[in-house]
Amino acid sequence: MASSDIFPERFVKSRGFTQFRYNITEIEKKMIEGEEPKKFFRYDYVEIKDKITRKKLIDALIRTKIDVNDEFNLVAKDHTSKEYLDYRTFVDGCKIIVDEALGT
C-alpha cells in the first residue's frame, strides 16, 4: 500500500516498469493536533514489465493474493467448493478493476 497527497495517476512508468495503481481511496488525517485534517490518497499498486495488457494486469492483481501454484491447485478443485467459488469471485473482482482502469 502506498499514499500520496495528490490523486495518483492510474499508470506510471517507474524504473523500467509500469505501476498500475488501484483501490484508490481518499482519507483525511490530522498531521498536527489543532490543525485541519489533510487529504491523502491511499492505494495499492502492481508493477508490469514491458507492454501493458489486460491479461498481464489481471494476472498481476491475482498474484497479490494467490501464487501461481496455489492457483493451479484451486482450478483443479471441485468447482462447487467454497474455496474455488471464493477464488472465482476474487478473479472476477480483478477483472472489474482492470476493465474500469482500461475503459473497457
What does this structure look like?
- By secondary structure, the protein is α+β, with helices and mostly antiparallel strands.
- 38% of the residues lie in helices and 31% in strands.
- It has 3 helices and 4 strands, in the order E-E-E-E-H-H-H.
- A 4-stranded antiparallel beta sheet has the order 1-4-3-2.
- It is globular, with a radius of gyration of 17 Å.
Task: Jot down its keywords.
single chain; 4-stranded antiparallel β-sheet; 104 residues; 3 helices; alpha+beta
Number of helices: 3
Element string (H = helix, E = strand): EEEEHHH
**What kind of oligomer do you see?**
single chain
Uncertain stretches of 5 or more adjacent residues: none
Query: Would you report the number of β strands?
Result: 4
* Straight-line distance between termini: 25 Å
From the spread of the alpha carbons, the general shape counts as: globular
> How much strand?
25-35%
Q: What is the mean pLDDT?
A: 92
Structural class: alpha+beta
The amount of helix comes to 25-40%
Rg (CA only):
17 Å
Strand line-up across the major sheet: 1-4-3-2
The major beta sheet can be summarized as: 4 strands, antiparallel
Task: Record the SSE blueprint.
Blueprint: E1 2-4, E2 11-14, E3 17-29, E4 38-49, H1 54-63, H2 68-76, H3 82-102
Antiparallel strand pairs: 1-4, 2-3, 3-4
